Amino acid sequence: MRFFLRRLGFYLITFWAAVTINFFIPRIMPGDPVSALIAKNQGRISPDAADALRTLFGLDENMSLWDQYVQYWNLLLHGELGTSFAYSAPVADVIAGAIPWTIGLVGIATIISFTLGTLLGSGIGWRRGTWADSLLPISTFFSAVPYFWLALIAISIFSVTLGWFPASGSYDRSLVPSFSWEFISSVIYYGTLPALTIVISSISGWILGMRNMMVTVSSEDYVTVAQAKGVSERTALFGYSARNAILPQVSSFALSLGFIVGGTLVMEIVFSYQGIGYYLFTAVAAKDYPLMQGIFLVITVAVLFANIVADFIYGVLDPRTRQEG
Fold first, then answer.
1. Percent of the chain with pLDDT over 70
2. Which residues cross the membrane (predicted)?
């Protein structure tokens, strides 16, 4: 229990540091975001609204930096992240509308690549030296291919040449979002090509990681003793070798789940997919500081939460991590 309490305390301090850094980001950036917004929207936003915009963004010059910091925490505790300049809507609403798309696409693709990569890596590592090792150079090649290049190739082949999948978008815009099968099938149809791009690009890392760990673990004494006792090959593979080799994979998987909230930025831009990564790109292009600040905060919280889950899972799977040195 002390192990979990110590880890929880550490992450609470980390969360405070992340929120504090996020508070100072728009205040240390060169220029004035409000002035930049007014200059970009000349004729639509009056310069007289500068003071009101600064107050809305938490940059009131009449308030001390400490008072602004306290006000920022107060807004966060009430679930308020400010108002997006680009979308003229609360930042929390913009992020809430984008997160399900990113989690649905990148999350499912990450789970598929992790599952397939771990199973393939276990088999290749267990039967090392066979023809299965010839798959490693192929997977390594795809892992070295940049996301955007692979996405463009996929669009060129499957969308332009073959016409099997749409080149952009997240669903058929003629449909009204609902839980009907027509809309769900449209989402699956539009998300297949981006998901396939993510799986092909990331599966090799899971294969190589699990394969190398299996090579190390399968030569341990307890695996040799289990085989000498006459246990089945399946039990030796999954009950002894893979069970211990998967521990680093679990930690990496939990961390990758945290980065899902951030989305695959380049992939969402190439496919014009309305996830967090796409909104972050539009926020940077439009100098939408409140939206950028809100997205950075959500990504940070997601990664910290994933770290907590990884530590707890690792502590449960490997009791040695909970013992004093």
1. 82
2. 7-25, 98-126, 147-167, 187-208, 253-274, 294-317
Instruction: Using a pLDDT cut of 90, give the percent of the chain over it.
Output: 0
For the chain, domains (ranges, CATH) are 2-90 (no CATH), 100-322 (1.10.3720.10)
pLDDT (tens digit per residue) in 265-290: 677 777 878 778 788 888 777 777 77
pLDDT of 159 > 80? The answer is yes
- Quote the mean pLDDT of the chain: 76
Whether the pLDDT of residue 263 is over 60: the answer is no
**Phi, psi angle pair for 167, to nearest 5°:** -85, -20
User: What's the rounded Cα separation, in Å, for the pair 97 and 103?
Assistant: 11
Tokens encoding 246 = 């998967």
Q: How far apart are CA 136 and CA 134, in angstroms?
A: 5
Helix 276-285 crosses helix 91-102 at what angle (to 10 degrees)?
A: 140
User: What's the token pair of residue 211?
Assistant: 């394969």
Residue 167 has a pLDDT of 80
Are the beta carbons of 102 and 260 closer than 8 angstroms? yes
- The Cα–Cα gap between 273 and 264 comes to 10
Q: CB 161: neighbour CB atoms within 10 A?
A: 9
* Nearest-angstrom CA–CA distance, 29 and 203: 38
Residue 289 · residue 226 · CB < 8 Å: no
Mean pLDDT for 32-46 is: 70
Residues 6+ apart with CB under 8 A from 189: 165, 166
How buried is residue 138: exposed, middle or buried, by Cβ count under 10 Å (0-12/13-18/19+)?
exposed
Rounded to a whole number, what is the distance in angstroms from the first to the last CA of the chain?
16
